[in-house]
Amino acid sequence: MGVLNVTPDSFSDGGQLLSSEGLLHDRLMKRATQMVADGAAILDIGGESTRPGAAPVSLQEELDRVMGAVQLITPRLDVILSIDTSTPEVMREAAKAGAGLLNDVRAFSREGAMTAAVAAQLPVSLMHMSDEPDRMQEQTAYDDVVTDVKAFLAHRIAACREAGMAGDQMVIDPGFGFGKTVAQNYEMLRRLEEFASFDLPILVGVSRKSMIGAITGRPASERVVPSAVLAVMAAARGASVIRVHDVAETADALAVWQATEGEL
Q1: Pick the catalytic residue: 106, 150, 180, 209?
Q2: Number of helices followed by number of strands (H, E) in the chain
């Protein structure tokens, strides 16, 4: 899953695909095309930054960013488009325009989001986040981070089923970096196999995150190699979808790992 943030303030690539005047269409299309060529099966489009401390955006801003990207890419590339949003109106419009996955960091808890997701009849990704982005890093007190995150996900899975979603529509995401300390992030990765008890695909997003910077001391732009290492570790522990900024490097790392496992 390749990341396409059409935001001015995402932690790694904010402002690269969006200017004060709107989407940078040529740059966005070039990056999307390259990601698909490099091996991305899914492109994840987000119009609202959810980095720690991020401020919310208006509905119209998010719609303009996300729908501009969807309408640009859909007729030109044969790829699944994932929409990284918690906003019901964005979910509805993106579904109409051909999106293939709804990826919600709030696990469809925002008012109207569950109804919109059920109506869209698309696969959904449910992520754990301890609080809103501007407060989540203050909420890292867990009895046991894996047990507590699993309890949250079980609750949201049950809510989705009760709302009318089928089990085969759901993907789960432990939410690396979303209200966890560095040590908790690494513990979740180390124990990722415990999430297999849900019998649902697991999505992992650790690409370029601060959990890497805390160990290496490098800025986000220089975290490509350790991001690929963590991607392989996640896949080895059962992740089905790896959300990344650097598709080619990650695809190469995964290919070498798969060959080592006898999957030539």
Answers
A1: 209
A2: 9, 10
